[in-house]
Structures are given as structure tokens and as C-alpha cells.
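Objective 1b: paired records.
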Amino acid sequence: MESKPRDNRLVLNRETPARTFSGYILLVVLLAVAAASIYGIVSLSQFDGDPSLAQVVPRILGPVLVALIAKGFFLLQPNQAAAIQLFGAYQGTDRNTGLRWTWPWLSKRKISVRIHNVTSERLKVNDKRGNPVEIAANVVWRVDDTAQALFDVDDYREFVNIQIESAVRAIGSKYPYDDFDHDELTLRGDGDHVANEMAAELQERVRAAGVIIDETRLTHLAYAQEIAGAMLRRQQAQAVVAARHTLVEGAVGMVEMALEQLSAKNVVELDDERRAAMVSNLMVVLCGERDTQPIVNAGSLYQ
């Protein structure tokens, strides 16, 4: 016979409402049964003669019934849920707050559905250009499906923390730290985009645990210590080059405008030599780092 291949796909649990009851009603029942049991035991002790089996059995079952009812109580705080199980089989989740009650042979496993705030450790990651950077992120998350969180992963808190580290490393290596040419997205200059992509990446990773990612933000971003000094000098050099480039472009435009207006208004006739001298002087004035000192020529331009 031809063997069928095994289906290795993970069968995920899904949260369903549990059939539980208000604990306050059962509390009244418990008090009534306890009072009846106490009255029966006291009356039996005052009975003359040997009591019959019909008189003893109800008085024995009373305390047993009280113990069974008491075992079914459990308390849920706001934003807390309880997964109900029958001999290990999932029966549903109760999200109703206050005093609750279920059958005593059912087990209750509580889980918090509050918002969790986690800040990852500073991780050393190589960015897109291979430069080591230190990066950390803050993640806000909460449990959405209690059945998946409890039964589809071993420890959902540890699972989320590991996936946060993996997502931070993945996003940190996807973008360069900085780019002065503004040709691509960077970790430093496009924090909102990087945070949104990290949230989407992390959400896909923790979906199997029934967790919802509400927000992610980068809390720390810097070059690693071993290259921080060199990268700072590189950034300064690139900033100087970029500033010089902008300055030269502006100076050329101003010189061109000055020559055009002088020629258009016939202020002065400039031959090639005079034009070259004016261009040289204007470029020195506009591009120099220090203030220029004017020199007044009282003679001919050619002297």
C-alpha cells in the first residue's frame, strides 16, 4: 500500500466562550447548603437512639456538596481571562469579571489580557551597509486569543520577547543608518516608517501566539563604540561636502545673475578678461569662509 504523507501543518486553537455562571448566585446556594448541613448535623447529635441510614446519608452528603460547590468558584479581575479545561481538553474562555463559578471538575487557567510594554535590550546589528549599530525598540502588545497564547506556544511571554529581538535584528539590517544623499530610507531619518514596518514584521511573527502588536518605537539608535569616532568624522566630512556643494551652486547662480543684469542694463562693458576677473572675485567673496576685505582700485582695471 502507498503511504500517505504526513500533514505537518500546525493545528491552531481558537478562543471560544466558556459556559460559566455568576458566582454570586452560587454563593447564595452555598450558604444555604452550608446552613442546612450544619442544622442537620446539630439535629442528628441531639437525636435519641440510633439514627437510620436515611437520616445519616443526607447529613454526610451536605458537607461534600458544600466542598464541591466551593471548589467551582474563581475570581477574575478586569482585563483577565480564564481558560476552562476538562481533563486537559480546552472548553472555552471566560472573560467576565468578578466572582464566577463553573463545575468543580473543570480546571481554570488564568491569563492576563492587559497591555504589556516591553523594551528590548540594546542589540548590536550590522546595518544594510555593514556598519555595526546599536539598536533597541519599545513594543506595546496584548493577548488577543487566549487559546492560542496558552496552548499553541510553550511560553507566550518568552515567545514574544524572542520574536521582538528577531524583528529588531531583521529591520536593523534592512536599512542603512544614515544617507546624506537622501536616496533611500534610513534608520535615523525615517523612524516612523521603520517603526511601522517593524510592527508589521513583528505582528506576522507573533500571530501564531494570538498576540496583537499595538505599537513599536525605536528607543535607542547609535553606531557601535568601535566605529563611532570614525563614523562621526565621516558624517562631518559628508556634511561639509554637502554644504560646500550647496554653497557653490548658489554662488554660481548669483554670479551668473550679476553678469546678466550688468550686461542687460549696460552698466559696464566687460570683455573676457574683465568678466573672468569679476567671476573670480565674486566666487571668492561668496564661497570664502572668512569675511573678505575690499580693495579700492583708484587706477585702471588693468593696472
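Objective 1b, second protein:
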Amino acid sequence: MENISSISIFGFIANWSPFFFIFVLLVTIFYFLVTKRWYKEFEGGRPITNKESAIFIINMVLVYIIYGSPVDLLSHILFSFHMLQMAFGYLLVAPLFYAAVPEYLQKYIVGLPVLKQIFAIGKKPLVALILFNGAFSVYHLPVVMDNLKMNVFAHNAVIIILFILALVMFYPIFNKVEPKENHMNGLFKMLYIFGIGMLLTPACALIIFASEPMFRTYTSGDAWLAAMELCVPSGMLDSLKGQGMISGPEYFTDAQPIHDQQTGGIIMKVMQEVFFGFMLGFIFFRWYRDERKDEAEVTRRSLEEARIQRELQNQFR
């Protein structure tokens, strides 16, 4: 029995995903080229703010940590890391993109032929809400998840689809595309956040309160080794198997599978509460600020109308 640091035996590529790092770097470079040099080519283009730049960089660092660093490798060994990856990827990284991408670029992206149809779902909040949470729950059915994790192309496709659905789910609250009058007010946005939490709860509860481990890819040696092909080069994995060095996740941790599974469900629920708590605070204070602005504007207009009426009355005296 070894400790979790033994993942170094899988090699540099499996642990640090250099090709994914290059992808993240290229996306970041392209983002700054668009927002700092080519923004004039877009309708309503403007220079990017320091805040947007900082949020984008932080978000891309998070993307690499979640999907390219040893965290990704650990997510295939321990279910708790899998749920940590899910929580950060779908409930933090996805909504942060709305804060990082300027409004003119959001309008351009959601206006592209295929994406236009996809993000149109976001104009129907209830549908967007049900789609992501339904897909998330179905993905975590043991028969679905175990089979997907043993097929690299199907698994990656589903992960991308889930991320797109997460973007669509947060579209009604954070997008900068729709006119202000088409947005939900602050109260409905907060209720929407509560709705996401409620729909995520059954999947978390099923995982937390299960009486035995649910997923073969975290318990059965053969299924686990097949799933590890998602992130470990096949040559490296074959070499380790041939030497008899690994047979299952128990090589890396003393945690019982059922305890690891329960920890994963708890992590997802706790991180959801933390992220949603910040979202609720942000939405509430922005709603309060906008309401104060509206009140001030109504007062200003009333005073202006009263002044005009007084001037008219004085003219006819």
C-alpha cells in the first residue's frame, strides 16, 4: 500500500498534461489578441479592463489545475477528486467566463451559427436549469459513468457537453448579451440559484447515503485500469501492469471506496454551497444597487417634471 504521492510513477505527461497546457496557453494568447488588438473589428468593441484580464487569467489557471495538473489524474483514482473537479469546473469556472469575456465578444460568440441555437436555450431558464442538472445526474448513474470512463472519446465528449450546458445554465443570470429589460430581476436570479442547488441535491444525496460503492471504475481493478487510459499513455500503463506494480486504486490510498465516495458527495455539496453563497451575495448587492439607482432616477424625473410644471404655471400668471 502506497500513499497518494506515488502517482509520480505514471510519468510527466500523465501528471502535467503538457499538450493541454499548450492548448490553455494558446486560448489565453488568442483571448488577449482579440481583446487588446483586434477589438475594433467587433461591433461595440472596447479595450479590456484590468478586472476582466485578471479574472480570465485566474480562470484559465483554474482550468489547467482542474483538467491538466495531477488533480485530473487523481480524479480517476479517487472519487472525491472527481467531484472536486466537477464542482470547480461547472460551478465556478463556467460562470466566471461571463465576468471575464467583454459584452461585445459575448454577443459575437452567442451569435455564431451553431452556438446561437445552443445559447437560445438560456433564454428559457427552466429548460436550461433542467438540462444541466438532468445531464449531471444521468452522468453519475453507475452504469453510465462506468461505461463512459472506459471510452476516452465518449467521456471527453460528455465532459465538454456538460461544460457547455453549465455555461447555458448560468446564461440567464450572468450574460451581458440580453437587454437589461429581458433579464430576470434580482429576486428571480436568487431563486434560480436556489433551484440549481435543489436539483443537484438528489444526485449528491444518492452518492453520500449509498450503502456500498457505486462505481466499478473506482473499485474493480480491471475497470479502473481501463478507465486510467483516459489520462495515462497506454505504453506507460502497459509497462506498469506488466511489472505488476499496480492493480487498482488501493495502491495509492488507504481510504475505503465507500468513504471516498461519501467524501466526494459531501465535497460537491459543500463546494456548491460556498460558490452559490458568493453568487447570491453578488446578485443581492447588485440588485440592491440597481434598485437604489432606479429610485434615484425616479426621484430625479419627478423633480424635473415638477420644475417644468412650475415654470409653465409661472408663464401663464
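Residues 4-275 form one domain. Residues 257-315 form the longest helix (59 residues).
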